[in-house]
Fold this sequence. Notes:
The structure is a single chain. The chain is mostly helical. It has helices at about 15-25, 40-45, 50-60, 80-100, 105-115; strands at about 65-70, 75. The protein has a two-stranded antiparallel sheet with strand order 1-2. A hairpin with a 5-residue loop joins strand 1 and strand 2 (about 75). The protein is elongated.
Amino acid sequence: MRFSIDASAATPPYEQLRVQVRDAVAAGELIAGAKLPTVRALAEQLGLAVNTVARAYRELETDGIIETRGRAGSFVAPQGDAVRRQAEAAARAFVEQARRLGLDDASALDLVRAAQRG
């Protein structure tokens, strides 16, 4: 997921980032458990001050959209109902296993489609 900041916009950069993360989570582009870039890395990527990204992350955490796990980093918090959270966890586990096995994304998706048919 790539974020971008419009320096000419009237909306402050931290708010632009907060809204982009919130919308990505709501759209399912970022699922529960997805690791977000570190504050420093994202600040560097976007050309922002570290405090600007930190403020966006703090507000997202206050809103329950992300959770920070100390040195482990920041992650998308569980959203929605328990069934969806379990399905997202299963999907993450499958992706991790497929990557460990050396499968590319297209091959992994082919396996999912075959399982749905079968």
